Amino acid sequence: MNISTENTIAQPVGTTLERYIMRKQAEFPFATGELSQLLRDIALAGKIVNREVNRAGLTSIIGSMGQQNVQGEAQQKLDVEANIRFIRALTNGGEACAVLSEEEDDIIHTGNCQGKYVVAIDPLDGSSNIDVNISIGTIFSIYRRVTPVGESATRADFLQGGRQQVAAGYILYGSSTMLVYTTGHGVAGFTYENSLGEFFLSHPSITIPTSGTVFSCNEGYWFDYPQYVRDYLMQCKREGQSGRYVGSLVADYHRNLLTGGIYLYPPTGKNPNGKLRVLYEAFPLAFLIEQAGGRAESGTGPILDIVATEFHQRTPLFVGSPALVERLLTETEVAPKEEAIEQNHA
Ligand code: AHG
Ligand code: MN
Ligand code: MN
């Protein structure tokens, strides 16, 4: 029987995440498999959270916990569930010696002192959308530890700087569930096949369009925005560009990554240093976007050059197509060097 017949009758299912990881590991002779295992552990937790997300309306998982997280934000039940699932998967997987989570004040020590990696994570991004069935996500950032193997991780392991990340990515629980990640050699996307319980390679090499006609921001804060941001947005509107804002960073980011566009979370009165967190939102998404040919800025410098001194430090975020970010920062007055933000950059 010839191949074309075989393909007609038995369509190939494609490349699983597992096979992709093994192939990529084989390309690095000194790779010892720990990072591969860490990515598998994250994917496993993502599958479990995906299951909870898909049946949220049928279980007791929607709604608020009636408590706040360390950030003073109302915790949704799924925030807590996702946090538990990812920390448990990383603890049982053995490769991460510590985890920093949006939902935890301090480092979570997994007990894997022999683990060579640490993970910073936003277990559930877009919490306000959980109960209304709108796309949400998980964002993760991986570093090789700087403290000696065998000892407990310290702050230094998490505050190495954005350009020290060895891998970063997100899981988007959307109309389909996708895992998108980079290990510094381009960006690959995998789509989850529920019936097989596997992620399959669907986007082998993602690069963001140089420009685009979409801007994503919460215009409710319009009167808080710096003048250069308002000037940019007014120009977008004069040109008839589209405003698209889901309220889940991962969803807005993913759409702009594939079609071109810019996501803006400027300083506001409520969050004068920006709302989004450096270590588990801005850094991983900045690493990814630069690997995809895009750009991520804070308004006073590249996101990846921010000097983070606190675990839950926030930053303004302008991320997406390079021509759009460039235009935001140059064609209008230069972002004022606000004291509070300047501290973020060396
Ligand atoms: P999280 O749910 O992890 O706290 O993140 C929410 C973030 C981001 O996902 C989203 O783009 C932004 O907050 C929405 O903020 P506003 O509701 O202020 O627009
Ligand atoms: Mn988030
Ligand atoms: Mn979150």
TrEMBL record:
Primary localization: cytoplasm
Source species of the chain: Hymenobacter luteus
Cofactor(s) this protein cannot do without: Mg(2+)
Cofactor binding notes: Binds 2 magnesium ions per subunit.
Pathway: Carbohydrate biosynthesis; Calvin cycle
Underlying gene: fbp
The protein, known as: Fructose-1,6-bisphosphatase class 1
Domain Fructose-1-6-bisphosphatase class I N-terminal: start-end pairs: 16-204
Binding residues for substrate: 125-128, 218, 245, 263-265, 275
Stored NCBIfam families: PRK09293.1-1
